[in-house]
Amino acid sequence: MDEALNAWTNLYTLPEGAVKLLLLIESKCKIFDSIRKNTLKYLYEKHSRENKKFETFLNLLFENRLVAWKSRSKELIRLTFSGYDLLALRSIDKKFSIILFGSNIAKGKESDLYAAECSSIGSCVIKFFRVGRTSFRDVKRKRSFFKLGSSWLVRSTKAAISEEKAYAILKDSEVNVPKFFWRNRHTLVIEYIEGKRLSNLKESELSTDLFYQVVSQVNFMLKKKFVHVDLNSFNILVSNDKKKVYIIDFPQWVPLGHPNSLFYLSRDLNNIASFFKRKGVNLDEEKVINETLNFAKQLIKSE
Fold first, then answer.
1. Of residues 61, 81, 68, 79, the one with CA closest to residue 10
2. CB 234 within 8 A of CB 201
3. What is the Cα–Cα distance from 156 to 146, expressed in whole angstroms?
4. Most exposed residue of 10, 71, 228, 270, measured as fewest CB within 10 angstroms of its CB?
5. Long-range contacts of range 15-18, CB-CB < 8 Å, 24 or more positions apart?
């Protein structure tokens, strides 16, 4: 069972005392990445009415993979993705009342997406950031917002905050993005879009018109002084009728005034053009890329 499904399984069965212990572990791991068991016991017993159940609750957290030992010495306790997921789901459930938590609909290097149903907002997607799940080395090189924190917990939360800001900038603009509902910790709740990722379309479903729809979305983002930075066929959704494309996944975005914004923009455009050309779509990609870059330069000069 993966981390989020494990968290969902434990969400309604975990005793409140164990939840309080998990929250205490979270508060310390945000600062120190881990906490000594003796220190945790002292803090928990000092403030909890159920202090005599510390060992019982801690063992329960370990058994359900909500926490883990940081090293073989078994002195330091760390929060797991599953434990952090549970705390986020707990808050989401309180706000929106989760009726159904479905299967994983997308799994990437740095995030997992799940279909869900909530009583107050209907069908939605719950996105859990997993920054650093595979390796921190490449993450450090690419993500400027990680200078302020080193743990996966801090990094994943900062990625979620960055994407939340992106949705705020693009809201009510010409850019087609899913509706954003809420962020809690490293987790976002967004609208469920009926469609497919561009990467999953058959060659017969791809066209020059679809390519220009994507380019139009890039230009609309530029009008908002916004560059995606990681635009590719995996973070573009196409509606089932092929009449609308949606842009998703924004944790790496930069403002158009960023020193490397034109480089990132050029890379985004080349990624998309290369995808369509590999699939046999006839394009004058050089003309399109130059026109878009010139448009971006004009916007920068006008600031």
1. 61
2. no
3. 9
4. 71
5. 15/57, 15/60, 17/48, 17/50, 17/53, 17/57, 18/57, 18/60, 18/61
Q: What is the pLDDT of residues 16-57, one digit of tens each?
A: 999 999 999 999 998 889 999 999 999 999 888 777 899 999
- Among all residues, which ones are annotated catalytic? 230
**What's the CATH number of domain 3-80, 3.30.1340, 3.30.70, 1.10.10, 1.10.1740?**
1.10.10
Delimit the domains of the chain by residue range. Answer: 3-80, 84-191, 195-301
Within 10 A of 190 (CB to CB), how many other CB atoms are there? 21
The domain covering 195-301 belongs, at the CATH homologous superfamily level, to Transferase(Phosphotransferase) domain 1 (1.10.510.10)
Is the pLDDT score of 138 beyond 90?
no
Query: Residue 202: its pLDDT value, please?
Result: 94
Question: What confidence tens digit (pLDDT) does each residue in 252-295 have?
Answer: 999 999 999 999 999 999 999 999 999 999 999 999 999 999 99
CATH topology of domain 84-191: Phosphorylase Kinase; domain 1 (3.30.200)
Residue pair 76/34 in contact by the 8 Å Cβ criterion: yes
Distances (CA, A) of 42 to 39, 51, 53, 211: 5, 9, 13, 60
Question: Residue range 205-231: average pLDDT?
Answer: 97
